[in-house]
Write a structure and sequence with these properties.
Length: 237
């Protein structure tokens, strides 16, 4: 009886020893030929369906992309991209006259300078117009970016910063006074697609639903690799 009991105890101890054992692998671990853990122990995730939005927001370096209004042939937007392919200026024109523009200069990690221009014209009395120019300095406390994403996932990013007017054509502008600003953006990639304009077909594009604190309503937009924004509202490439 004692001998049988001792053997049972040894069997139990052996089972505990096996369950506490470790698997020491020198090299990669693969499943069906695909590496799931590399030789350093890092889990390898499939990122083939991830979308890097900067690939679509940016355009070819030093390019200008022109969008025309579907409803009004004399209204256009021009988007200017710098030597890194990042948007640096945006203008809206009516009858070849700029009515609004914004340009970003002196870009650093947490600051930039923005130059704004706008012109209002009374349609009933075109001679009555008002122009405004303003240069300001943005200094960021927080500025987040969109992570890589997948179709159907809503993401958010935001900025907390101060805006200080340096120069202005407006007499009552609070020059030199820092204004606290909080802005946010939401974006959902609806689908990956191609885009066809009058002159060309672009194969790698995304359609997104975009909203921001300065927008009245969320807007469906199309971005394409090497072109940036190609369609929003009734403006298209």
């Amino acid at each position: 009886m004692t001998k049988h009991f001792s053997l049972s105890v040894l069997a139990i101890l052996a089972s505990f020893s096996v369950s506490a054992a470790t698997l020491d692998v020198h090299g990669e671990i693969k499943v069906n030929g695909k590496t799931v853990i590399d030789n350093k122990g890092n889990l390898i995730q499939d990122k083939s369906d991830l979308i890097d939005l900067d690939d679509y927001f940016d355009a070819k370096p030093n390019s200008i992309v022109t969008l025309k209004s579907i409803s009004s042939e004399n209204s256009i937007y021009n988007f200017y991209y710098d030597e890194n392919g990042r948007q640096s200026k945006e203008t809206q024109s009516i009858d070849d006259t700029i009515t609004w523009s914004m340009e970003w200069k002196d870009r650093k990690d947490m600051s930039n300078t923005v130059v704004k221009y706008s012109k209002w014209v009374d349609p009933n009395t075109p001679e009555n117009s008002h122009e405004m120019t303003e240069t300001g300095k943005n200094e960021f406390t927080v500025s987040t970016s969109y992570p890589q994403t997948k179709v159907g996932i809503t993401m958010a990013r935001g900025d907390i910063y101060t805006y200080t007017i340096v120069e202005s054509s407006e007499q009552n502008a609070p020059i030199g006074k820092a204004q606290q600003m909080n802005e946010y953006q939401y974006l959902t990639v609806l689908e990956k697609t191609s885009y066809k304009s009058e002159n060309t077909t672009i194969e790698d594009c995304i359609i997104v639903l975009q909203d921001a604190s300065w927008m009245q309503n969320a807007q469906v937009r199309t971005y394409c690799k090497d072109y940036g924004l190609v369609q929003f509202g009734d403006f298209k490439l």
